[in-house]
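During the no-cost extension, the postdoctoral fellow (Dr. R.K.) reprocessed legacy sequence entries with the updated structure-token encoder. One reprocessed record is reproduced below for audit purposes.
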Amino acid sequence: MTAKIINKINNKNVKVGVIGLGYVGLPLALRFSEVGIKTVGFDLDLEKVKKLNSGKTYIKHIGTQKVKFALTNGFKATNDFKHIANVDAIIICVPTPLNVNHEPDLSYIKNTLGAIKTHLQENQLLVLESTTYPGTTEEEIIPVIRSINKSSSNNVFKSTSSTSLSKGRFTIGENFFIGYSPEREDPGNKNYSTKTIPKLVSGFTEKCLIITKALYDQIIDCTIPVSSPRVAEMTKILENIHRAVNIGLVNELKMVADKMNIDIFEVIKAAATKPFGFTPYYPGPGLGGHCIPIDPFYLTWKAKQVGIDTQFIKLAGEINNSIPKWVLNKVIEVLAKGKKSIKEAKVLILGVAYKKNIDDFREAPAFELIKLLKKRKAQIDYHDPYIPRLGKIENYNFNMSSIAFKGDKLSKYDIVILITDHDSFDYDLIKKNSNVIIDTRGRFELSNNIIRG
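Re-encoded structure tokens follow.
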């Protein structure tokens, strides 16, 4: 049976279902369509479904032409999970946030499994891509699949094989296959794409791994098999902890350097000339995005279950979370030098996306800074060409729209704060017309009206 499935994959006769059409799931679905594999995208958001089926995009760095091309290749989007019964491979790309106690929230994964389990068929492949703690595949997905009774009496499933299943259940690795392949998307990165980013693949059994790898080999230039889902889950967590800890380090050094009147960006640039033993990481206004601020705490939570207190990870998190308040204090300090109070001060935030050149604002540090400034009664405007409006977002409730950007209007602001360094900003114009700029990204060369933040 494994050989038959592999042959079907290699001939691109499979049909793939991608659940969750966000920043991970949509590019993945479009990539399968791009190589001629029929793909169904599943999402509960009916507006997303309607846009995609009409050839439109809702993610700025994913062009409309890609969606239209996918439609011509048989792609369709739906919010009806009954169509799971008609696909050969199911890939889950749903959010894995933290709850209020900084503990893993697997509700999206569990709800997805609940929605699809009555539609699963023999010989399907189920792959999780969502970032999660080591052991999730074995502890959360495997038990659900093993619990499914395929007896003919309930008439829930329509078997694609005449072979009856032992004990009336799926036999994982024989007539149902489970893999884990963590996403490595980097939205807005022009140097790497879904196709060119090397991809880890794993399977619950050897046959599961072989089939998972065969599927991703159709769309990824380089797939890297590892011995188990636990290894793949831990690897993904390590990748993000590596970044979180190093960013925490340079954020702390930024505060030290500031007190010593040293430009940390010049220091990093100088250190990066060393051809070995150093990798440059850059400070900013805090951590943003769905991965780096969240994923390290998945391991912290899991480590507690085995009696380990991950102090290093927690410390990095505390430092990174403290940076918006540090930027606020820098604003207060700058205003005080001009004998101004933050109350009623006019402040312009440049960029609210969590990183440049994208419209993704998940966990964006700009939101915490805006909240802190509003609490101090400052008058806040923002400009972001990618995000025209801010409403109720995560734990924040804003009612703001991006202002029209005109250089001659910048002088009315006491302070301009560069939070997200979009390439589309006219930095010469901003520098020329602003009274004071607090630069949290090191985009400007230091001068009389430029202050590192």
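The two ends are 60 Å apart (CA to CA). Residues 2-227 form a domain with the Rossmann fold fold (CATH 3.40.50.720). The remaining legacy entries will be reprocessed before the final report is submitted.
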